[in-house]
Amino acid sequence: MKSIGEVAAWFGLPAHVLRHWEAEGLLTPARAGNRRRYTDADVDRVAAILLSKEAGFALADIRLMLAARSAPARREVLAGHRERLRVRIARAQAALDLLEGDCPHDDLMTCPRFRGLLADRLTQATGTA
């Protein structure tokens, strides 16, 4: 069993992050008096939370995913996240497209490439082709 300080140091986290995750229902370490004691399973769960956060999951979705008692329930959480991630990737790609342009025009609004990006955005916003 490990202390909160040991687990926090192992993962390079401040201890308050682990306490917050506990308050959010993501962790349930055992108690020895009023001290938290983390088992190997708790340490695995911290690693799973970090991995999920790196994948862009919100804490609420991580809680749902880790608490899912069936593969279909877990797949439902994953499907929702996958769709939100696709939207974020599309937005990031649009931002990258804008930044990668080397426009020689003094007025950005006259740049044909930029005008094309604007047209694409307007089409998306109005739902027309």
Features:
129 residues, mainly alpha, Multidrug-efflux Transporter Regulator, Chain: A, Domain 2, 6 helices, 3 strands, elongated
Task: Give a topology summary.
Layout: E1 2-3, H1 4-11, H2 15-23, E2 30-32, E3 35-38, H3 40-54, H4 59-67, H5 71-100, H6 112-126
Antiparallel strand pairs: 1-3, 2-3
Helix pairs in contact: 4-5
Report the structural category: mainly alpha
Give unreliable regions as ranges. none
**What's the tally of helices?**
6
Describe the biggest sheet? 3 strands, antiparallel
Terminal CA distance: 60 Å
Approximately what portion of the residues adopt beta-strand conformation? 5-15%
Sheet with the most strands: spatial strand order: 1-3-2
Could you tell me the number of beta strands? 3
Order of helices and strands: EHHEEHHHH
What's the pLDDT, averaged over the residues?
91
**CATH fold category name of the domain at 1-57:** Multidrug-efflux Transporter Regulator, Chain: A, Domain 2
